[in-house]
TrEMBL record:
CDD domains: CYP4 (cd20628)
Name of the protein: Cytochrome P450
Binding site for heme: 309
Membrane-spanning ranges: none
Any one cellular-component term (Gene Ontology): endoplasmic reticulum membrane
Record-stated family: Belongs to the cytochrome P450 family.
Gene Ontology molecular function: any one: heme binding
Length: 324
């Protein structure tokens, strides 16, 4: 039911949104010209939050311009609280955590996020019901590979809800949307930030990226990125994947198994038998011929199998545009 929202043609409809916010991100960085170090994680995160909210919920939150808003602040504080709880054993037990100052702050921020999402869902549901009553929907709204009208992830879930509210209640939609928003703005910034950092540390590789973009766009620095442009960005894609190998955005993958087992993905990604000179940033490890020569489970940044990340195609399109 959820997979069609991230069909291989669907991201094409969101390229304009990603490109728009990426241009804003680039403008923010240009404001820091002068040779001084810039902490880029925050502006990257603001851009990815803008992108995921618009593509998942169909709403513009303008995070860059409203970084102090309750929703934006809560989105980042929740992530910080989760990390803090993981590293503090005395916070692992709900009976203690819920009464602590940190636990109460976490609950308050979570309520802020849930309340915002519920309001968006209720508003969009009312709009869709009104559209049905007035027969304003056209064939362009149909879900197929010829999709022409950009539709947020929320619309697909609401369509299922309107057909069978028992199958997918509104609270279930809220959970799915919140999950995608959190994952979409929490992991991608790390991937983009590490890629940019590694490119800065390796000017020879950065020069290849620049040359590749010049070959695609020429002197058209202000042109919008298209699906065809993305398909030509092979080297940037390899740079992003290699950055994910060295610094995984998702450091752990939890699964229920019959017997306790722990596989350290970070160690696996630096196995010398699989990745020679593993500490070296080498995008050519991701060439098709090299990937084919490795075990398919040697590199799984989006997990693997039937429960892999359904947003992985989107998660590669977004950083490609932002890095470009």
């Amino acid at each position: 039911m959820l997979t069609p929202a991230f069909h291989f043609r669907i991201p094409e409809d969101f390229i304009r949104v990603i490109d728009e916010h990426s241009q804003h991100f680039a403008a923010v960085l240009e404001g820091h010209e002068g040779g001084k170090p810039v902490e880029i994680t925050s502006p990257v995160s603001m851009s990815t939050l803008d992108i995921i909210c618009e593509t998942a919920m169909g709403v513009k939150i303008h995070a860059h311009d409203n970084s102090g808003s309750d929703y934006v602040r809560a989105a980042y504080d929740v992530g910080a609280s989760l990390i803090e709880r993981m590293v503090k054993p005395w916070h692992w037990f709900d009976i203690f955590y819920t009464v602590s100052a940190e636990g109460r702050r976490y609950s308050k921020n979570l309520d802020t996020l849930h309340s915002f999402t519920r309001k968006v869902i209720e508003k969009r549901k009312a709009e869709m019901l009104a559209e049905r009553e007035t027969n304003t929907e056209t064939s362009n709204n149909k879900e197929d590979t010829g999709l022409k009208k950009r539709r947020p992830f929320l619309d697909l879930l609401l369509e299922t809800h309107l057909e069978d509210s028992q199958l997918l209640p509104l609270e279930g939609i809220r959970e799915e949307v919140d999950t995608f928003v959190f994952e979409g703005h929490d992991t991608t910034p790390m991937g983009v930030s590490w890629t940019l950092c590694l490119l800065a540390e390796n000017p020879d590789i950065q020069a290849k990226v620049h040359q590749g973009l010049d070959d695609i766009f020429g002197n058209d620095n202000d042109g919008s990125i298209t699906q065809d442009d993305l398909s030509k960005m092979k080297y940037i894609e390899r740079c992003i994947k290699e950055a994910q190998r060295l610094y995984p955005s998702v450091p752990l993958i939890a699964r229920f198994v019959n017997q306790d087992l722990m596989i350290f993905t970070n160690v696996t990604y630096r196995d010398r038998d699989v990745f020679p000179d593993p500490e070296i940033y080498n995008p050519d490890r991701c060439l098709s011929k090299n990937v084919a020569a490795r075990n398919p489970f040697a590199y799984i940044p989006f997990s693997a199998g039937p429960r892999n990340c359904i947003g992985q195609k989107f998660a590669l399109v977004e950083p490609k545009i932002m890095v470009a």
